[in-house]
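In the lab's daily routine, each protein ends up as an entry in a very long ledger. A line of letters takes care of the sequence, but it says nothing directly about the fold. The three-dimensional part falls to structure tokens, numbers that each stand for a local backbone shape. The outcome of that step, for a single protein, is printed below.
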Amino acid sequence: MPMTQRRAIDHARIAVVGAGGTGCGLLPLLTAMPVAAITVIDGDTVEAVNLPRQLLFAPGDVGRPKVQAAVDRLRPMGTVAWRPEFRFIDPANARALLAGHHLVADCTDDLAARQLIERTCHAEGIPLVSGSVHARQLQVVTVQGPGHRFFQGRTSEEQMGCDMRTVPAAVTTLAASLMALRIADILAGGDGLAGIMDLVDAANGRWLRLMGAEAAALTQIAPSA
């Protein structure tokens, strides 16, 4: 039996965790969507080595909190209400930071943070679009509803993060663009490819799509009346 059309989200409140390369690529794309407020969460400061990949920042931003520099750059672009949170997400603050948002975009680069964000979104019933990069590879997944959770198990040392200096801006921009397409679909009333993970090897032009248990339960959405 077809599912009923999900209701579009107007004047959405979105939390973006991570203001590095992928976050810098995603934030400008969100300003073109029906978004009323964006919370940007990151405890890092801008370094000179960030500038070739994190395109919201300029040399004068070095030493500043990334969240504040990003918000200052984007605020003139529209009417979004910006909320910079200059702190890293952790088990003590995750629920307070994410609760009350219509959607969370995870732009972090280590598995422990991604697990925490996914658990928190699951507990709060918030749709999650998660993107990460490694060298010239990227993955993007949407998790919402009671289905299978993607980020489980123990974290190894190599999964705790990668050397982002090896990741070109083109790769983080591609990850951000794929995330933005899923977010736009959710805001319009779609499922955002829930339960489906896209793995892209940009160096070799390969694209793999993994179907999780949540995706297997999806049925055709009926057109709106």
Observations:
- The CA atoms of residues 40 and 116 lie 17 Å apart.
- Strands lie at 12-17, 35-41, 81-85, 103-106, 128-134, 137-143, 196-201, 206-211.
- Residues 153-162, 216-225 have pLDDT under 50 and may be disordered.
- The two ends are 16 Å apart (CA to CA).
